Amino acid sequence: MFHSRKSPVLSLFLAVILLIYLLPIDSVAGAAPLAQGESYTVQKDDSLWNVAEKYLGNGAVYPAIVDATNKKAAEDATFATIVNPSLIQPGWKLWVPSTEEAEAFIERIQRVEKLIQTFEQEIELLREELNIPGMSVAVLQGQEVVFARGFGYADVENQIPATENTPYYIASCTKPFAAAVLMKLVEGGQLDLEAEMADILGDATFPFPDGAIHGYAGLCETIIELSQDTSGPYAPYRFLFEDYRCDTKPITVRHHLTHTSQGTPGEAYRYNGFLYGLLSWVVEAASEESFADLLVEYITGPLEMTSTVPNSSDSRRQQVLAELAKAYQIDDAGNVVLSDFTQDLNAGAGMISTVLDLAKFDVAMDRNLIVSEGSKEAMFTPTLSNSGQPLPYGMGWFVQEHEGVQLIWHYGQQTTYSSLILKMPEEGLTLILLANSDGASAPFNLGEGNVLRSPFAVTFINLFTDLEVE
After folding, report:
1. What confidence tier does 290 reach under pLDDT thresholds 50, 70, 90?
2. Which homologous superfamily does the CATH classification assign to the domain defined by 130-174+327-464?
């Protein structure tokens, strides 16, 4: 239905859309109606405008010829592939669609443009309502970016607008990347998801603000102590440490990967970014490489995610950090307050990226370029509890259904950044959103496993699909 935002064809559509709106659809048939499409060989001094005017009665509808020719070229190499509509060469073989097909094409482009305009307006209204300083949004259909732009400011103080190329901390949207790395290790025979954390991390060293902790047994003891501390500096975070029965129960890699490591392992879902973050050390123990290095080796390097950190190029990393959207908090009076937030990388959070780089990851997952189809399906399948009940999380992704359509998603939320990736595989659609405050996630308690609480997700689904969400 749509063309890639990166495609010159889409830029062309947007450039001529006003011309198309100014001309009634009937004017496509200003020449004698062309009942069937036909091929045309470009002559000297031809332009697409002239060809469209001759055969379709309206030069402004030449994008219909571009679209039809490129579709033919995908099936028949004798047809030209038009990259720049301003440059066509004598001898090129074009396909001129029928008048009816051209009319349908113009109507479709008009609908697309209206849809995009409505989506932009709705997203901007939500940003303003939620007092989000800046954010960037991308939409993919059929593994192509069909919409990408920024809203508000990446830097409020200096009035630097957010764009589709603005980097943000992506918070817990790091987790799907970590899951992909872990599944690569499983595919390579380096890791067993049923292995116990105590066995894998027996000799690991864990950095902690109060000093390094040596060995999983030491970590377990510390976690239990913190779960019982009601007055110390970690008391507000007791929920991260509570009921982690590492001293009495076998807890596996899978339990951490599926957020089922608290209580009786495997019995219930409890979202926990801290415990998920321990998977960084599982990666290191299994591969003898750091989590950051494997992210680059397996994902960000091969996919040329050059605006993402970690990155193999130190100079590029410094450039991304220099362009990073400023971090903001909203005080009790509703004022936007600049923060100096930073975060170290682990399996639970800490990556920096742009919506366009995340789009590369999305497409690569769809095409099984990172992990196999089998591994992907395992990641996208709801975890079953010990008693056989489906839980809202797979491996690195939330999984739910709406009206029989699968929603694969993840959100991110830190005090100064928020994010959302929503995939609808059956619809061929993906929404990617990054923001420089917590406003895109914090109000909606997404950790409970229902993405339909997000007005951004609801707006996307209602506009881009035939589904209805109230």
Report:
1. very high
2. DD-peptidase/beta-lactamase superfamily (3.40.710.10)
